Amino acid sequence: MDVLNQLVASGQFRVVKEPRGFIKLLQWLFSIFAFATCGSYNGEFRLSVECVNRTESDLNIDVDFSYPFRLHQVYFDAPKCNGKGFDKVFLVGDYSSSAEFFVTIAVFSFLYSLAAIAVYLFCDTKYRENNKGPMIDCIATAVFAFMWLVSSSAWAKGLSDIKIATDPDFVVNWVPACGRDGNKCLPLHDPVMSGLNTSVVFGFLNFILWAGNIWFVFKETGWSAPFMKPAPAPQEKQPAPDGYSQSYNQGPGYAPQEPYAQQGGYQPEYSQPAEYTQPAYGQQGGYGQAAPTSFSNQM
């Protein structure tokens, strides 16, 4: 707990939030799923052999197989249906190479991811020293990405062959009694391959993770510097020219206008009120108008 508290206090766990650290955690986790789903597999299928003489029939023959899928070593006893006992019937094929190769890559990926996470957390300064750590990490990541692609492809092909070799409809063809007239051989139960299908999916997911992590580790090496365009230098603002602030509000030829009262034109004189003459309604000739208002300043 003391070591954990020191890591939290020093901020070393920030590496886990970075792409290279977070993806390493996913690689470590997915590699466990890959070799666990493949290496721990146990399968079983069932068939029946019904002879003309019903007393010799075997209606429930269970055949078990498991990792590493050396099927040519797996056999079961089938009745001969002629009163002479049983035949040993072997399955066909040896698919251990592709299965073991896949599991080996998964185990080494698990170990390398765990070691890389430990280096990120405890020795990040030495990791960046002389740039050797990022270079080794980048090369190893590229190699593991390629190996995941090869191993997953080989295991996918091997799995398709295992499905054929363990298909009860295919296996009954290897039972000698099934080729004689009057005998009936029937498949009863197919093996469940969902776990092996999941292992193939995790294999290709690991390839995607390792291939995607190449870029983030590659940036740590400094090899990407020649390919990166330098950012353009920020342009300095030019100082405003002299008199710009003065001419901002005053265009060329601009002169302050005189007050409206000093311009020529209409200007009433409010100091001398106009004389108002009431109209005389009694005079003939209609409505009498007052004298025009006098102004001191004429236009």
Q: How would you characterize this protein structure?
A:
This protein is mostly helical and 299 residues long. Helix content is 46%, strand content 11%. The protein has nine helices and five strands; from the N terminus they run H-H-H-E-E-E-E-H-H-H-H-E-H-H. It has helices at 2-10, 14-17, 19-39, 96-122, 124-128, 132-165, 168-171, 194-221, 244-249, and strands at residues 42-50, 58-66, 75-79, 86-90, 184-189. It has a three-stranded antiparallel sheet, with no helix packed on it. Strands 3-4 form a two-stranded antiparallel ribbon. A hairpin with a 7-residue loop joins strand 1 and strand 2 (58-66). The protein is rod-shaped and about 95 Å long. The N and C termini lie far apart (101 Å).
Task: Quickly list its features.
299 residues; mainly alpha; 3-stranded antiparallel sheet; two-stranded antiparallel sheet; disordered C terminus
Please write out the topology.
Blueprint: H1 2-10, H2 14-17, H3 19-39, E1 42-50, E2 58-66, E3 75-79, E4 86-90, H4 96-122, H5 124-128, H6 132-165, H7 168-171, E5 184-189, H8 194-221, H9 244-249
Antiparallel strand pairs: 1-2, 1-5, 3-4
Helix pairs in contact: 3-4, 3-8, 4-6, 6-8
Biggest beta sheet summary:
3 strands, antiparallel
In the sheet with the most strands, the strands line up as: 2-1-5
Give the helix level as a range of percent: 40-55%
Uncertain segments of ≥5 residues (pLDDT<50)? 259-266, 270-299
Q: What form results from the Cα inertia axes?
A: rod-shaped
Residue fraction in strands? 5-15%
| Head-to-tail CA distance between termini | 101 Å
Order of helices and strands: HHHEEEEHHHHEHH
Q: What is the alpha-carbon Rg in Å?
A: 48 Å
Number of strands: 5
Task: Tally the helices.
Answer: 9
Class computed from helices, strands and strand pairing = mainly alpha
Nearest-integer average pLDDT: 79
